[in-house]
Amino acid sequence: MNASQLSASFTHAQIGKNKTESIIAPDNDLVKLVNPTHGRKVNQSVTGLPRSIQRLLGPVLLLCLWQLLSYLNVFDPRTTPSPTTVVLTAFDLIQSGELQNHLLASLQRVLKGLALGLTIGLTGAIIAGLSRLGENMVDSNMEILRAVPNFALLPVLIAWFGIGEEPKVILISLGVLVAIYINTYSAIRNVDASLIEAAYTFGVKKRELITTVILPGALPGFLIGLRLALTSAWLALIFAETINAPVGLGRMMSDAREYFRIDIIFVLLAVYASLGLLSLSFVRFLEARLLTWRRVFDGN
Amino acid sequence: MATNPLFVPNVVNVRDLTKAFDKRTILNHLDLDIQAGEFVALLGRSGSGKSTLLRVLGALDGDVSGYIQVPERRAIVFQEPRLLPWQNILRNITIGLPQNDQSRQLGKNALAEVGLAKHTQAWPRTLSGGEAQRAALARALVRDPQLLLLDEPFGALDALTRIRMHALLRELHQQHNPAVLLVTHDVDEAIFLADRILVLTDGKISFNEKINIAGTRERSNQHFATLRTKLLNELGVEHV
């Protein structure tokens, strides 16, 4: 028994003692005494596992259930393969190098689309956020772009850019730039006016105002935008790869559909899910690193 | 001009200052002088225009008529600390100054003076209300102001913290000797801290008196009590 366990059992004994005392102490019908510390442990994980692993509990249980039901032949394997079949298929696809090939092509498209969308969205948000003139020039255009469903622009993009890489990247960037723009712009405009007023009284000039007051203040909003942008980028990728893609996850998907390879389709769904989750944990990582100054409710 | 050693120049000159908002006159042909190093408390009921006057002197409120002169080097402490939550305390203190070692050293010195030497790297959210307001004082002091404008700076603090802040402010005033305009609704605070007390009523200064209290400024002091009653009467509060 180590020291911490010892002290833990000691506190327990104390609490137990208090409990008996409270029963012995003025025990009348009017006052019921309870131990206020009972059953409340703050910031103490039950298992000692990190939160990120604890959060996998739900999906793991679901997979086990799925495997069990497949084993009991509840599902038709032609429409719903078992998790083990999906894993074996994935293993084959990785061994042949097929999956990596397509994944890399898709990843490149998404990264290019993100880079383009981030640049335009962020520049637009800063121009519109920092001045009335900028707002007049940029904001309405962005509102219109937001109102048009991106995928409805696909025919126009094909007409302008052909069926190569460009329309795919641009389609991805459209959703990204709208998500980044809307959230960053509104975050800039929501920076506490009293802080800006105070900064002016302390002789802060435009440049410092932007770099130390407005942009850091808008960072939480930008990160929400980034979260939505990543979600929209993966969604747009699926649509983008329906345009004559010789390589990419979308190509793999349509091939699998054509040859009735339901197991490959499930592998791809798992890949899309992992990519989505990875992007979200990337944003969470950024939030944890960049927003240490915030105190927020963490569910504990 | 400054050849006579007894001559103390005015750092605030206000003549015929009028400020109206939607036909409502907030400041009405107001005159005000503050000497260099003088500590002036400005009392007034809520809505009397005392914060507006401070904001005009702090160049936060334009759109006025009249003649106003204030020092170029001035600083404000607001009722809320108004620290940037995403910058550490030291960076908050040195905001608006050239970012170099000299400014950082000045900032550290100012923080040490208000008793926050250990908190230079802390986030503002981790400070208590009193500590945050002391940081706001340090942010004002580091600019070496000739006029320090205090807009009910202790209004949101608890009574015990407020007492400590009064002592600190007196100390800092003796050290740095800026002219101070303290806007407050706390009569005791005004008597305890100021050299001169003004009362603003209906946009005009209705009371203007230097404090001459022999001995320590405590409530038990007879002069203190007399002045207190007089000021409360002036503010429209009878028999307290």
Give a count of the beta strands of chain B, DSSP E runs of length 2 or more. 9
Number of domains of chain A: 2
Tell me about the biggest sheet of chain B? Answer: 6 strands, mixed
Helical stretch count of chain A?
12
Q: Which second-level CATH architecture of the largest domain in chain A applies?
A: Orthogonal Bundle
Mean pLDDT of chain B: 90
What are the segments of chain B in which pLDDT stays under 50 over at least 5 consecutive residues? none
CATH superfamily of the largest domain in chain A: MetI-like
Summed up, the helix count of chain B is 7
* CATH class wording of the largest domain in chain B: Alpha Beta
Computed structural class of chain A: mainly alpha
The CATH class of the largest domain in chain A, by name, is Mainly Alpha
Amount of helix of chain A: over 70%
Silhouette of chain A: flat
Q: What's the CATH H-level superfamily name of the largest domain in chain B?
A: P-loop containing nucleotide triphosphate hydrolases
Strand content of chain B: 25-35%
CATH fold naming of the largest domain in chain B: Rossmann fold
| Shape, principal axes of CA atoms of chain B | globular
Strand arrangement in the largest pleated sheet of chain B: 5-6-7-3-8-9
Give the domain tally of chain B. 2
Mean pLDDT of chain A: 87
